[in-house]
Amino acid sequence: MAWNVFKFCTALRALGSIMIVLVLGIIGVTYYVIVVANYGPALFHGGLDSFVAFFVLVLFHSLLVMLLWSYFTTVLTDPGGVPPNWKPSIDEESGDADPLVGLGYEGTDLGLNQPATFGGRCILKMDHHCVWVVNCVGALNYKYFLLFLFYTFLLTTLVTLSLLRLFIAFFTDGVINGTSGTLVATFVTFVLNLSFALSIMGFLVMHISLVLGNTTTIEAFEKKTNPKWRYDLGRRKNFEQVFGVDKRCWFIPAYSEEDWERMPVLRGFDYPTRPDLDELQQL
C-alpha cells in the first residue's frame, strides 16, 4: 500500500491540542522556576543580586512575549493554498498555455481565509508540517515559524545560563534554598531548556542556510540534483523573500503593508528567478 503523505499530515493535526498544551506546560514550568521560585524573590535581596534579577526578568519576559506572539501567529496563520480551479499559465511539461489560468487568480480566494485542512491540499512554498505548531509551514507563515525558532533559542539559552549556577550546586556542596519540589522543578527545567537550546540551534542554522539559498526543506533535495538554482537571487534578496524589505518588521511576526504589496512570494503565484539561468533553461 502506498504511503499517503496527506493522510499522515491530517493524522498529525489530531495531536494539535496535545502539543499546544505541552508547549504551554513547558513554558509554565519554566516561568515558575525563573520568576516565582528564583529571580522574583532575588529582586528584594538588594545589591548586585537585585540588579541581576531585574535584568534577567526583563529579558526573560521580553523574549517570552516575542516567543508566544511568534508561536501563535504560526499556529493560526494559514500557510497559503492553491485555489481548487487554478492552473499555471504555462504547462511545465508541454509548454502550452493553459486556458484555465484565469480561474482562481483574479477575484478568487487564495485559500488564505479558509480553514487549514491541508489533507490533499497543495500548500504554497511548503517547507514541512510541524507537529509543534500544529500547522504546515509555507509561504505565509514561514517567517513566523523562523522567528518562533529564533526566540525559543534565545529564551532557552537565557534560562539555561540563568539556572547553570543552581544546576552545578546540585552536584557540589553549594547551598540551595527552596523546597524539594522547587529543586526538582529547577533541575528538570534546566535539563529541558538545555536540550531545546542545543536541538533548536542546529535546526535554526539549517533553516538560515535554506533562507539564504531561497529554498525550502523539500526543495533542498531538488537543489542537490540541480546546483544552478534559478530562484537563488543572492543572499540579501533571498532573505527579503522571507522577511520582507521593511527592516522595521524583520524581528516581529508581521509584514508591513508595503511588504504585502511588493512581495510577490506572499501571493504565491509569482516567484522571482535569475534571468541568466532562465535564458540557459530556454536554450
UniProtKB/TrEMBL annotation:
<protein>
    <recommendedName>
        <fullName>S-acyltransferase</fullName>
        <ecNumber>2.3.1.225</ecNumber>
    </recommendedName>
</protein>
<feature type="domain" description="Palmitoyltransferase DHHC">
    <location>
        <begin position="120"/>
        <end position="223"/>
    </location>
</feature>
<keyword id="KW-0012">Acyltransferase</keyword>
<dbReference type="GO" id="GO:0012505">
    <property type="term" value="C:endomembrane system"/>
</dbReference>
<keyword id="KW-0808">Transferase</keyword>
<keyword id="KW-1133">Transmembrane helix</keyword>
<feature type="transmembrane region" description="Helical">
    <location>
        <begin position="183"/>
        <end position="205"/>
    </location>
</feature>
<feature type="transmembrane region" description="Helical">
    <location>
        <begin position="51"/>
        <end position="72"/>
    </location>
</feature>
<dbReference type="Pfam" id="PF01529">
    <property type="entry name" value="DHHC"/>
</dbReference>
<dbReference type="InterPro" id="IPR001594">
    <property type="entry name" value="Palmitoyltrfase_DHHC"/>
</dbReference>
<dbReference type="GO" id="GO:0019706">
    <property type="term" value="F:protein-cysteine S-palmitoyltransferase activity"/>
</dbReference>
<feature type="transmembrane region" description="Helical">
    <location>
        <begin position="144"/>
        <end position="171"/>
    </location>
</feature>
<keyword id="KW-0472">Membrane</keyword>
<feature type="transmembrane region" description="Helical">
    <location>
        <begin position="12"/>
        <end position="39"/>
    </location>
</feature>
<dbReference type="InterPro" id="IPR039859">
    <property type="entry name" value="PFA4/ZDH16/20/ERF2-like"/>
</dbReference>
<comment type="similarity">
    <text>Belongs to the DHHC palmitoyltransferase family.</text>
</comment>
<keyword id="KW-0812">Transmembrane</keyword>
